[in-house]
From TrEMBL:
Cited Gene3D superfamilies: Phosphoenolpyruvate-binding domains (3.20.20.60)
Lineage: Bacteria, Bacillati, Actinomycetota, Actinomycetes, Micromonosporales
Official protein name in the record: Methylisocitrate lyase
GO MF annotations, alphabetized: oxo-acid-lyase activity
Transmembrane segments: none
Pfam families the UniProt entry points to: PEP_mutase (PF13714)
Keywords in alphabetical order: Lyase
KW Zinc (keyword) present: no
Organism this protein belongs to: Actinoplanes philippinensis
Length: 290
């Protein structure tokens, strides 16, 4: 059902913003805020689980494991997850997608970047051959049809818009549900991609890893074919900032009182503590009168 919901989002005529989530509590917060889709990034998993940067330390198995803890808090809200390049071959990409689907993930974005680095001014310096990338997408579309495939290309940074369009077209023809032209932030360039690929939904991101990017109005993005905007690490960075202020306040003053915090009662409600402590709620069927 959630994959169908994600496909409906991509088929609509509006822009949907998908914030990053990284644990059951942030998933519950995103659901409570009314989001229609959410995102799990490899960078977030690497930082939270390993304390490492997004430099290839995290495999899809770990992302799927993390996702399985988030999905119960999301209900019918689709979760999109980072699948890197699918991990080296079409067969491994299929295995990854199957593992993601078992974890409850609704959609994956599959990249065509090669070796590291993944972010910064030299990101995208290595791009895998277009045929190899398209073969992975085709394998996913054929063998894991229940998962939504978003084909990401990192060609723009080093090969420009023309190569980006060529790759987006090839990936759409291979069976991708949407294309993700990473680094294409200019509205006119997005329009050119849209005109070259009529009917193909576009996905973009607003990751802080990409530096300062223009904030474009949703109406303009929708007219340029954008249907989904990912915000992979915004909530994680906000949480880290809040935590750093609390730690500093405790170190300096012996109290976190100066720092704005969620009330304890709100936290326990979000985490389901009241329900967990209610024996009737845990062990008695919902429609049974007691």
């Amino acid at each position: 059902m959630t994959a169908s919901a994600l496909r409906a989002i991509l088929a609509s005529d509006r822009v949907t913003h998908a914030p990053g989530v990284y644990d059951p509590v942030t998933a519950a917060l995103a659901a409570a805020a009314g989001h229609r889709a959410v995102h799990l990034s490899g960078a977030a998993v690497s930082a939270i689980m390993l304390g490492r940067p997004d430099l290839g330390f995290v495999h899809g198995t770990q992302i799927a494991d993390r996702a399985s803890t988030l999905v119960p808090a999301l209900g019918d809200i689709p979760l999109i997850a980072d699948a890197d390049t699918g991990y080296d071959s079409a067969s491994q990409a299929v295995w990854t997608a199957l593992a993601y689907a078992r974890a409850g993930i609704s959609g994956v974005h599959l990249a065509d970047r090669g070796d590291l680095p993944r972010h910064g001014p030299v990101a995208g310096r290595e791009i895998i051959p277009i045929g190899e990338a398209a073969a992975r997408i085709s394998a996913l579309a054929d063998q894991v049809p229940d998962i939504v495939v978003i084909a990401r290309t990192d060609a723009f940074a080093v090969r420009g818009l023309d190569e980006t369009i060529v790759r987006c077209r090839a990936y759409a023809e291979a069976g991708a549900d949407a294309v993700f032209p990473e680094g294409v932030d200019d509205l006119e360039e997005l329009r050119l991609v849209h005109e070259a690929l009529p009917g193909v939904p576009l996905v973009i991101d607003r990751s802080e890893a990409g530096g300062n990017r223009p904030i474009l109005a949703d109406a303009d993005l929708a007219a340029a074919g954008v249907r989904l905007v990912l915000h992979p690490v915004a909530a994680l960075l906000a949480a880290m900032r809040a935590a750093s202020l609390a730690y500093r306040a405790i170190a300096d003053t012996g109290s976190a009182e100066p720092v704005d915090r969620m009330p304890w009662a709100a936290f326990t409600a979000l985490a389901g503590q009241d329900e967990a402590l209610d024996l009737d709620a845990r062990y008695v069927p919902g429609r049974l009168q007691t």
